[in-house]
Amino acid sequence: MLPANLVGIMFALTTACVWGGGDFSGGLATRRNSQFQVLALSALSGIALLLAFTALWGESFPAPRGVFLAATAGVSGAIGVASLYRALSVGNAASVAPTAAVVSAALPVLFSMLTEGWPGVMRLAGFILAFLGIWLVSKPSTMGDQLVRQGILLACLAGVCLGGFFILIAQVEPGKVFTPLVVARSVSLCIALLMLLVRRTSVPSPGSNPSALLAGVLDAGGNVFYLLARQFTRLDVVVVLSSLCPAITVLLARIMLKQDVSVAQWMGVGLCLIAVALIAV
Hints:
- This protein is an all-alpha fold.
- The protein has one domain.
- Helix content is 79%, strand content 0%.
- It is built from 11 helices and no strands.
- Helix 1 (4-29) runs parallel beside helix 10.
- The longest helix has 27 residues, at 64-90.
- It is globular and about 50 Å long.
- The protein starts with a helix and ends with a helix.
- The mean pLDDT is 84.
C-alpha cells in the first residue's frame, strides 16, 4: 500500500488539475452571464453531483459544529468564486488565476504552521519554490493596465475568501467529505440567488450557459479531492499543491484562447514541478 502522505499528495495534485479546468470554465461562463448568475448555475450543478455521491456512499451529515463550519465556508467560498470568475472575465487568466492562488494558499499555510507546527526543511523549500513558481506564472502578458489592475484587485479578494474556505472546510470532522460540501454549496446557491434578487437580475435557465454548469461540476469535484487529500496529510501540503491549479488554467488559456504565455511563466511552471518533487520527498 502507498504511504498515507503520498496518497494525500496524489489527491492534492488531482485537485489542482480539476480546479484549473473549473477556473477556466468559470471565466468563460462569466463572459456570457454575470458572476452571480454563473455562481448560481455552478452551485446547482455542484450540488447535484455532491448529492449523487452522498446517496451513493450513504454519508451522514456532520455534527452541528461541522455544519456551522461548512456553512461559513460556503459564505466565504461563494464570495471567493464570484470574485474569481469576475476577475477571469475582465483580466488575463495568466495573471488573475495565479494571483488568487498565491493569496488563497498563503493564509492556510500560515494557519497550518501555527496549528500543526513547521514543516521539514525540504518541504519548506518546496513551499517557497511553489510560491515563486506561481508568482512567475502570474506575470502579466500584454494587456491594458486598467484591466490588469481591476483583475488583480478582484483576484486578491478572491484569494482571501478562498483561503478562508480552505481553512474552514478542513476543520470539519474527519471522515466527512460529501455532506459538508453539500452544506457549503447550498449556502453558496442561496447567496447567489439573494444577490440576483438584490440586483434585479434574472435567474438563468440551467441550459443557458453550459460552461457555468461544467465549472460547477469541476469545482465541486476539486473540493472532494481537496477534502480527501486532507484526510491523509497536512493542511499546508494540501493547499500548496492544490494551488498549483493556475498552471492548468494557463495551459488551457494558451490552447483554447491563444493567450500569450511568456518565458517567465513557463519557468514558473517548471519551478512548480520541482516544488512538487520537494514536497513529495
